[in-house]
TrEMBL record:
Residues 68-216 form the RecA family profile domain. A motif (RadA KNRFG motif) lies at residues 253-257. This is DNA repair protein RadA. Transmembrane segments: none annotated. The gene is radA. It comes from Endomicrobium trichonymphae. Gene3D superfamilies: 3.30.230.10, P-loop containing nucleotide triphosphate hydrolases (3.40.50.300).
Amino acid sequence: MKKQKTRFLCQHCGYESVQWLGKCPSCGAWNSFAEEKFSLPVRTGSLSRQLTGFSSEVLKLKDISVKDFSRYQTAIKEFDNMIGGGIVPGSLILLGGAPGIGKSTLMLHISDSLSDRGTVLYISGEESLSQVKARAERLKVKKDNIFLASETNLKNIIDAVNKIDPKFLVIDSIQTTYHPDLSSAPGTVGQVRETAAELLRVAKSKSIAVFLLGHVTKEGDLAGPRVLEHIVDTVLYFENERRQTYRILRAYKNRFGPTSEIGIFEMDSSGLSEVSNPSLIFLGERVAEAAGNTVTVAMEGTRPILLEVQALTARTTFGIPRRMVSGYDANRITILIAVLEKRLNLPLEMQDVFINIAGGVKIKETSADLAVACAIMSANSGFICPKDIIVFGEVGLAGEVRSVTFTAERLSEAEKLGFKKAIIPKSNLKNLSYKGKIDVLGTETLRSAVKFLRN
């Protein structure tokens, strides 16, 4: 016997209400509530939809052993470094990205590597077995320890897990998987939340590393409720569009490692291949004799990456000048333009300003402020920045250049690629551990940095 119930769920954050609301009181989204009907089995005592039980006995902290807490390393170093050194047993990993960007391709590569460490169960809810097999042959994945199933019913998936007892489970994708006790359509807030919670219990109770592949919306957010990101242990996103050759995978949440690391891959006919030296690739097509180009060093976690900053200014044809930014914070660009106008008397009030970080990388830190400001100055004034110089530092509202972290690591990476000079914050010269061959110039103000580049 089952009891029918009705509820209204916010499709953005998963907030639940007994009636329809125009505005979500949790996330503030308008017209985001949708009606969902679901049925629950009526039992004596309490209602439950759990298909898997998960509990442990109470132990003292000193009595708990961690000898079995060893990571599974794959043959993909970019992926291992990004998640903290390997895959933790019993972890729940969410991999999101735009359609066609390479989520399924990367998971087949990872499954191929992990099949040497244990059985892999690959559940495809979007493709047939022959379609998955065709992709595996194209990627040269022919391991005997990988099992495939085309299934969307969560109960049948758990039955397959109990039968095969794998060490690794791949769900492609979480939006197509549905809980049989919920009458709502797959991909809705209720279904995504319940199936993810059930797979979490499977991962923890059986010590299985579970990978969930997820879709993203037009805005770039993961489809489904925000609570999904709180349920899982690790959240990975593909940042780039599928039209670009290089794919950037970033960790936004990681309970077992850093959250600032990235992995860079190249898409070709044989699948996704890791890029060992991204700095060389991002600077490979740099034009030397062009105004408005500078080179900076950004830190992605513990890895320094050299990036080209491109700036272009043009007289506006409208009443309000445009500020177009790709790869950097647009608010920081507005601040830097104001500093250039006020402190260096640069006439940008009737100039369109375009900023681009070549290669599609999105810089998350403020260390590229100095390089961006110098690029704008170079584009507007017409002088060419030297080819063998790098620039990094944070710019304040008074035009001062503030210190950044990992100075020695940035300089060492620049030296490997043949750079001869560097403009850095003067405060970073104190206790600088770098002993390389780059000629380092410390600057206190944006004006002195621009003056050095002009000369």
